[in-house]
Specification:
The protein is an all-alpha fold. It is built from 7 helices and no strands.
Length: 242
C-alpha cells in the first residue's frame, strides 16, 4: 500500500479457511524480505502447451489440481498467464505458483463469500472488497470510476478474485482470450494475466529474491502479506515438483 499504483486490498479471507474440498496444507513461512524466492513451479517443459491449446492446458490443470487442491479452472488461468508472460517478458520467469500464492490469500482462488469461478472464468457473483474510506487500517481512496467496477460512487474498492483497484485495472486490465470483449476483473483469466504483467513490470526477474519481493510488495506493501504469498507459492511448488 501507499504507492500511486496499488493493486489490492486483502478482503479478510483467512488463507487456511476450509473450502468444500480439504485444502493443501501450507506450512507458514516467515522468510526475511529478499532473503529468498519461493520454489518455482512451472508448466513443465514436456507439458508446455501452446497458449492457444485449451485442451492441453486443461489437461495440465487437472493434473496439478489433484496435487494442489486448487480448482482446475483457476489453475488453467494461472497457467495461461505464465505462458503469456513467457512470450511477452521471458526474462521475468513468472511461475503460476506465485499467482496461485496471491490468489490463495486474496480470495481463496475465487471462493469467497459464496462466489465460485464458473466454467466461463467469471465469478458466479461479484467479489468486492471493503470501501477504502480511511477507516482504521484502511487506506483512503475516493471513488475514481463512478462506481463502474465496484458499485461504490463514494469510495474505491478492490474487485475480483485477484482484488484490483479500479485505477489499477484501467492501466493493467487485459482480455486474456483476445476475443475483443472488454477486460473484466471478475474474470479469472483476465485478472491472472493482468496480475502477471503487473508483477513482471520494470524488468523484474522473479527467480531473483530481490525481484520476487519487489513484485509482491508492489502488489501489496505488507511484509506479512508477502510472506503469506511466499508460503502458498512454495507449498504449491513442493506439491508439484518431482
Amino acid at each position: 500500500m501507499g504507492t500511486a499504483i496499488t493493486l489490492i486490498l486483502t478482503i479478510g479471507v483467512h488463507p487456511d479457511e476450509a473450502p468444500e474440498e480439504p485444502p493443501l496444507t501450507v506450512p507458514e513461512q516467515r522468510p526475511e524480505p529478499r532473503a529468498a524466492a519461493p520454489r518455482a513451479a512451472l508448466v513443465a517443459p514436456e507439458d508446455r502447451p501452446n497458449e492457444s491449446d485449451q485442451e492441453e492446458l486443461d489437461a495440465w490443470a487437472e493434473r496439478v489440481a489433484e496435487a494442489t487442491r486448487v480448482p482446475a479452472r483457476v489453475l488453467a488461468a494461472y497457467g495461461r498467464a505464465e505462458m503469456w508472460l513467457r512470450n511477452e517478458q521471458p526474462g521475468c520467469h513468472l511461475s503460476w505458483g506465485t499467482l496461485a500464492g496471491i490468489g490463495r490469500v486474496e480470495s481463496r482462488h475465487g471462493n469467497f463469500g459464496g462466489a465460485r469461478i464458473g466454467a466461463d472464468g467469471r465469478t458466479t457473483q461479484p467479489i468486492v472488497g471493503v470501501p477504502l474510506d480511511g477507516s482504521p487500517g484502511v487506506r483512503k481512496v475516493p471513488d475514481t470510476d463512478g462506481g463502474k467496477l465496484d458499485g461504490d460512487r463514494a469510495w474505491d474498492r478492490a474487485v475480483g478474485p485477484l482484488q484490483f483497484l479500479p485505477g489499477t485495472w484501467r492501466e493493467w486490465g487485459v482480455r486474456a482470450t483476445r476475443d475483443g470483449e472488454p477486460p473484466n476483473p471478475q474474470n479469472i483469466d483476465d485478472a491472472a494475466v493482468a496480475a502477471a504483467r503487473y508483477l513482471c513490470a520494470e524488468g523484474r526477474d522473479l527467480t531473483d529474491p530481490n525481484g520476487w519481493w519487489d513484485a509482491v510488495l508492489t502488489y501489496n506493501r505488507s511484509i506479512s502479506y508477502a510472506q503469506d504469498v511466499f508460503s502458498g507459492a512454495d507449498a504449491y511448488a513442493a506439491a508439484t515438483l518431482p
